[in-house]
DNA sequence: GGTGAAACTTCTAATAA
DNA sequence: TTATTAGAAGTTTCACC
């Protein structure tokens, strides 16, 4: 996969859009002393290149009733079942990310639930998937999301 | 924290914005057979209520050069150091999420790096934080992000 | 709560530099 | 590559349901 070359202007456009995707292109243009048309063209290019995959809302899941987060490590009976189990896991909506991992677990996933009872139901759901031998759960007492997304695309260039 | 009550219209507005934050309110209005003004007012209310915390771009980190993901479990010398260590960890931009957890580890975090060498540097950085006794790393061979965000705010109401 | 229309702002594509 | 421009489109407010 070829790395896409972004110049300083692209980075600054990304920075502003990462903070707020609905910021008017004219505002971006003003700050960067370029025209709104230029912003438009550059964003379009980054979209076409696949750098920008889309945009989404950041919702407050706690306010929506999901205050429980756990990570679940999954042991499989056979490694060959990985793909099958991963597919079943991805069907559970409360599983927000799943990884095939090296080391202790075969699969590792993040679960977002409403409360402990709800979490228990989800974990039992995972346990019940054919091929899963057992699971190990880690409960999050506090989550702190790193707001350095803005740096990620920048620092890379510097290294 | 009081749960905010969303009605069916709110849910549908969220659904569309989750897929694409830049979709015109007039488009949303047309689909839901309401006026654009109503969409505007409802979105504003959800923003004020904190349900919508913001919006952000979904970037392709692999295309930006970050193809390495690992989870790092951290053991502390003393639990009382948790807050201090968490703060140091959150200063590392490549750490995208950090959790205080129950069970095996004291802190658990996700690291996004460019390659194994870069990941090693980051893990050493974590190891070097005062109070960290040792770490355990799990390397992700494949990440599958669950695209059920759209369901999360809905299913809750149904339960 | 919602609407519809007016006033205002922004977008976008084409053209020109 | 960037700037300008103008018509199209979107947003936001407000008087009125």
UniProtKB/TrEMBL annotation, chains A, B:
One of its GO terms (molecular function) is sequence-specific DNA binding. Pfam families: AsnC_trans_reg, HTH_24. The keyword Transcription regulation applies. One of its GO terms (cellular component) is cytosol. Residues 6-67 form the HTH asnC-type domain. GO terms for biological process: regulation of DNA-templated transcription; response to amino acid. InterPro entries: ArsR-like_HTH, AsnC-type_HTH_dom, Dimeric_a/b-barrel, Tscrpt_reg_AsnC-like, Tscrpt_reg_AsnC/Lrp_C, WH-like_DNA-bd_sf, WH_DNA-bd_sf. SMART domains: HTH_ASNC (SM00344). It comes from the Bacteria. Keywords: DNA-binding, Transcription, Transcription regulation. This is Winged helix-turn-helix transcriptional regulator. It comes from Spongiivirga citrea.
């Amino acid at each position: 996969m070829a790395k896409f070359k972004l110049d300083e202007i692209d980075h600054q456009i990304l920075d502003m859009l990462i903070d707020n995707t609905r910021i008017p292109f004219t505002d971006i243009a003003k700050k960067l002393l370029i025209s709104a048309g230029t912003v438009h063209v550059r964003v379009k290019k980054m979209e076409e290149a696949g750098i920008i995959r889309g945009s989404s809302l950041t919702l407050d899941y706690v306010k929506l009733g999901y205050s429980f987060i756990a990570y679940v490590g999954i042991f499989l009976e056979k490694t060959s079942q990985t793909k099958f189990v991963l597919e079943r896991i991805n069907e559970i909506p409360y599983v927000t990310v799943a990884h095939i991992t090296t080391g202790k677990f075969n699969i590792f996933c993040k679960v977002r639930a409403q409360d402990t009872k709800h979490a228990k139901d989800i974990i039992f759901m995972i346990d019940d998937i054919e091929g899963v031998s057992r699971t190990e759960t880690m409960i999050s007492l506090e989550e702190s999301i790193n707001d350095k997304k803005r740096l990620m695309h920048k620092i890379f260039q510097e290294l």
